[in-house]
Amino acid sequence: MGILALQGVGYSYDGRTKVLSDINYAFEKGKVYAIMGRSGAGKTTLLSLLSGLASPTEGTILFDGQDVSKIDRYQYRSRYVGVVFQQFNLLPHLNAVENVELSMRASGKDIADKRKRATELLEKVDLDETLAKRRVLKLSGGEQQRVAIARAVSFDPEIVLADEPTGNLDITTQEEVMDIFKRLAHEENKCVIIVSHSPQVAADVDEVYELASLKASRKKKGS
User: Fold this and answer.
1) What is the pTM of this model?
2) 191 and 205 in contact (C-beta within 8 Å)?
3) Domain spans of the chain?
4) Alpha-carbon Rg of the chain, whole angstroms?
5) Which 8-state DSSP code applies to residue 164?
6) Which residue has better confidence, 20 or 38?
7) How many CB atoms lie within 10 A of CB 187?
């Protein structure tokens, strides 16, 4: 069993409107996954379930063998799962370093020198000291995305979830961002799960899961 597993997972709004049904996925550390599907297929709902923001109405989600519904939700979201939001969700009045530091404080983890770690993380996503001290509103979209990734991994989570992280980026920046995700998985042993509709993203990950018409089919890269 991987770090994260979905067993017969389904989700219905108001008990009647079914969005997901009988989803059986397994995710391992050290790999980049893409969850693909057309608009309305339930990608965002699935991301909410994986991040612990919502609970399945059917089935079970397991984190490291434990039922997520029986784990403290705040601890799960703030310590084990880092999320990169589609709209970045950075605090505009803070600079890049301060945004990353704030995430560390929220996690409650004992990180001795938060400023140093934040700076090192921003360097890892190719933001130098000058950019790190710049207010995020003064950064480009690609630079803000890098800050969002550094923030998501600032407390060293085992799982990184990303919602359409390349949707608003040009091709070159998209490739650079995907390289960061691959380094997180392949070099730092994170489980990286990307929700996307981009064929370019699907071609650049280790494994793809497809959502369509409430039926999930697993497609391995190259098959």
Assistant:
1) 0.89
2) no
3) 29-47+73-220
4) 17
5) S
6) 20
7) 10
- Please say whether the beta carbons of 153 and 72 come within 8 A: no
How far is it between the farthest Cα atoms of the chain?
52
User: What is the predicted pLDDT for the residue at 212?
Assistant: 66
Please state which architecture CATH assigns to domain 29-47+73-220: 3-Layer(aba) Sandwich (3.40)
Give the three-state DSSP class for 15: coil
Q: Is the pLDDT of residue 123 over 90?
A: yes
What does 16-64 look like in DSSP terms, one character per residue? TEEEEEEEEEEE-TT-EEEEEE-TTSSHHHHHHHHTTSS--SEEEEEET
| 45, two tokens | 């709902």
Range in 40-54, 68-82, 204-218 with the lowest mean pLDDT: 204-218
| pLDDT at residue number 218 | 40
Q: What distance in Å separates the CA atoms of residue 182 and residue 177, rounded to the nearest whole number?
A: 9
Q: Is 90 helix (H, G, I), strand (E, B) or coil?
A: coil
Amino acid at 133: K
Beta strand pairing status for 215-220 and 207-212? Answer: antiparallel
Give Cβ neighbours of residue 112 (< 8 Å, ≥ 6 apart): none
Cα atoms in the 13 Å half-sphere on the side-chain side of 29: 12
